[in-house]
Specification:
Elements: E1 4-8, H1 16-27, E2 36-37, E3 42-46, E4 83-86, H2 99-107, E5 111-117, E6 120-127, H3 135-144, E7 151-152, H4 157-167, E8 174-175, H5 180-191, E9 198-201, H6 207-212, E10 215-219, H7 224-229, E11 232-234, H8 240-276, H9 281-300, H10 317-323
Parallel strand pairs: 7-8, 9-10, 10-11
Antiparallel strand pairs: 1-3, 2-3, 4-5, 5-6
Amino acid sequence: MSTRRAHLEIGGMSCSTCAATNEDATGSVPGVIRVSVNAATDVVPFADGVPVDRDPDDDGPTAPDGGRGVAPDDEPTAPDGGVAVSPEPVGDVDPEPAEATMTRLEAERKTAMLVACEGELCGVIATADTVHESARETVTALRDRGITVSMLTGDNERTARAVAEQVGIDPESVRAEVRPEDKADAIEVIQADGSRAVMVGDGVNDAPALTTAHVGIAIGSGTDVAIESADVTLMRDDPRDVLKALRISEATISKVRQNLFWAFVYNTTLIPIASLGPLNPALAGLAMAGSPVSVMTNSLAFSRWDPKTDYHLLVTRPFHRLFG
């Protein structure tokens, strides 16, 4: 069986999620045997045809021997007899015949790209990320805590709003078609009024925003650059872990305040008694040693708490169980 190998240059491909999405989408095309995406060059062997290769000295994709060059980019070029793939209209190609199809695909949370063959519109390619099943649950829980959830994405407006609707994000909190260099600026705008933003991301494009945010949270399956730029790294790619991280931070501060309170009450009560004489000095020393022991015991009890639920004081837990 003869094969034809096509090299696809994809601009803006910088995160593992994008690469996996394109592998899945291209691999579903009839005749495709294997797809390998390395965020720089896509290699797609086909079942029939003649071997083709890309000219490394050419800035745009070329396909000698009568083959086809494919360029999914903002400003794609298509050599004679080639194919150009773009999310924007290519040259003088009229996108109107595919407008209804693109609208339908984008309403289904897919990113649609036009395909032009020899200067004529010949099809539409759509890719999509799978929304995690716990995403809506996490967004709802965050909003119940009084936290405003926003979406920053480079996708088009229709696709972004469709995804936002699925996970429960308000349309006015969606910022679509945001270029990588503008994500950090968007975070600065959010924090301009004194608000504290928590940025969650996994790609190279998210690194500046992760650094700019008050707290940056990187997905453990994301890129090394994102992980290095973030303050917190989640070990899994489950959105619920973002909520767990917030619960742990809030519970830790609550535990610190408890320890300070009890230490203050302990010392302000017993020190005056010891100074006035009613308390034996030996007993006063023993009582003083009990202060750090009580603080340590209170802190160790923290280990039995499960961050799947909000943290509450021991004396208030029965009331939360009864009244929610």
